[in-house]
Every structure is written in structure tokens, then in C-alpha cells.
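Case study: Bifunctional F420 biosynthesis protein FbiB.
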Amino acid sequence: MWAVPGIPEVSAGDDLAKLIAAAEPGLADGDVLLVTSKIVSKAEGRVVRAADREAAIDAETVRVVARRGPLRIVENRQGLVMAAAGVDASNTPAGTVLLLPQDPDASARAIRDGLREALGVDVAVVVTDTFGRPWRAGLTDVAIGAAGLRVLDDLRGGTDAHGNPLSATVVATADELAAAGDLVKGKAAALPVAVVRGLGHLTSADHGQGARALVRDARDDMFRLGTSEAVREAVTQRRTVRSFTDEPVDPGAVRRAVAAAVTAPAPHHTTPWRFVLLESPESRTRLLDAMREAWIADLRRDGKSEESIAKRVRRGDVLRNAPYLVVPCLVMDGSHTYGDERRDAAEREMFVVAAGAGVQNFLVALAGERLGSAWVSSTMFCRDVVREVLGLPPEWDPMGAVAVGHPAEQPRPRPDREASAFIEVR
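Here is what the predicted structure looks like once written out:
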């Protein structure tokens, strides 16, 4: 591995492949060329005035992952999670900042094709940039663009030196090469290009997947947000889901959500929550059939027509079609009795508020488990029926029912609500 000296200062419109070829890098078929993203950005004209840095970060940001004071860790347009969307003020003239290449994989392909044309060699190209990493101090270079390289070396299905099966080992080859190359390029040595020889078995005749294959998609990303951002998103992204897939619900996920629910505030250091988990189809059907009959009886007493009754009863399908059902209950154990109607009523209201806080915690935690939910109040209108069917103690008050499952579709966008409309300042 060696750095390539003689690369001149790069300006917008320069042909990087020709500049590298002119430096006589000594390339051979099967080599890997490591190119610092900054010279790619300069050649592609990705330079803006430093005064526009915050606006540039905003424009390059897809979502904010974490924020600490002025520092923003964001996902940028290339799918990379990094500080300030990769907008960088180093190694660029004073008063300017650099944006990352618009499509680093395309940049790598263009350099590779240009070197093949200029020098007649078939090499792999990796475009590198400097990252910090969660839970690790210091910076290292990683691959943000690639062409002609197997960026991931999948060893699953093989065995280690002791014959143990490898079931989860996928090596980020492109990132390893990027980090190694920085040992010879350096951050301030004006050596933006390096060559690695001896790893021809990792190169390919075609351009390959590119470095985009290194970006973990949202479904597999267990560390998608910072703590405060995750809390805000969990609260705001909790939505009422009314249709579910047939995919079964992990009972462990529901139990984790219950564990979150019972951290809600409660009066007198009590624990006023109980959660009845209906995990079998038989238990759900038995309860919902009994509730439907009770509802129909109420509607008939109200003088509703049979057509109106049938229409109203269909609203309960959200519970009937869910693969999992939870009945949260309020228990007044530990409550105070005053013998005064006003204070006794206030005491119950305290417990009801605590129960609601527990239900909200439960729904938010389900959203964190990537489960959809719908809280429906129906069990509150036939508590005796629910207690009888489920065999609950008489002091347990069902506080609605929660349908749980995997959403069949994305909910519609939530209408914006201006917080000031709900605030009174005194």
C-alpha cells in the first residue's frame, strides 16, 4: 500500500482520472485505488460559501439522528449517518465548505472508467471520507463510493480455523481498505490518493454493488436515533392502526411494552395498572362476541334500527381483525377514602389519569417495537361482561382494549398541530 504523490490542487471541472494517471501511480490490474472524497467534491464543483454552511447542512439532511447543542448527527442524501451531513471546512480555501459528492458510487465508476481508458488497467476504486463512530473515540476513513470491488465479503456458511460455522460474519471490506489507506494518505499531507496491491481476489470485472450496499436500511437499523430524538419520534409517530397483516406478534415485545407502561406516574406510590393479554384466537373471539351482544342490546334499547346497529357494530372489526389483543385495567388498590364525595371523586380521577399514562406508555413502547396499535374504549361500556368472560376480579376496571399487530399499510400523514393553540401562559 502506498500514497500517490504529485496530485495537484483540484478545481471544479477537472478530470480526476487524468490527474491521477498523470501522477504515474504505477497501477496494475487488480489494484484498489483509494480516493479522498474531498478531491472528488472539488472536481464536481461541490463547493459553497462558508456563510451558507448551516443552509447547506439543512439541504443535505434527510433526517436528524441526534442533536447536542450546535452539533447535528444526520442522515444525508447519500444515506450516510454522520456529523453535519458531511459538510466540511477542512482542506478547502478559506471562506468555503465542501459538500460530499452527489453520487459517490457514480464518481467511483467514472474514475475507474477513466483510468481504464487512460492507462489500460482494470482497477477497483473506493471513494473515502472520514467518520466518527458510535461508542468509539476518534475518527477513521470509510468507503462512501466504490466501483469494481466486493464491498462486503460474506463469509457466512463457511467455517473458522477450528471448524466452527460462520453464521453472521460479513466483512466490510471497503471500509477496512478505506481505513488502511488513510495510514499512508494522512489528513494533512496533501496525499489524497493511495493504492493497495495484493487483493485482486476482492475486485471484479463489473462495477459491482457500490458502497451504497454498506448502508444499513431502516428496518435493520437498531440504533436509528439518539435518545431524545427516539423518544420524540416514538411519541409523535405513535398512530392508530386499523388494519394489520397476518404476521404473528412477538409476545416478548408486548411484555416489554407492559414493562414500559408500568413506569408511568401513579398516586400514593401505587401500581394501578393490570394488563390482560389475549394471545389465543379463542379468548379474543369469546370476549368480542360477548361484547358485541352487549353492544347490540344497548343500541336496541336506544331505539336504533337494525341497519344502524349493523353499521355501528362493524366499528369493532379493528379489534376482531387484530392478531393480538390487550385489555388494560385500572385497579384502585392503595387509594384513599375520604367519606367526602368531592375528594373521593378527585381520588378516582387521579387513578384514571395514572391509568391513561400507563396506556400511553404502552402504546408508545409498542411503536418502538415497530408494532401498530389501536386503543378502543369499548370495554369501558360493558365492564361486567368483560370481567365475567375473562374471569377478572370485581375490582378490576377494564379501560378499553388495545388491538396490536404489524400495520398493513403506512398511516396517512398526521395533520400539523401548532402547540401554541393548546398553551395558555400566566
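For the exam, be able to explain this: Residues 239-422 form a domain with the NADH Oxidase fold (CATH 3.40.109.10).
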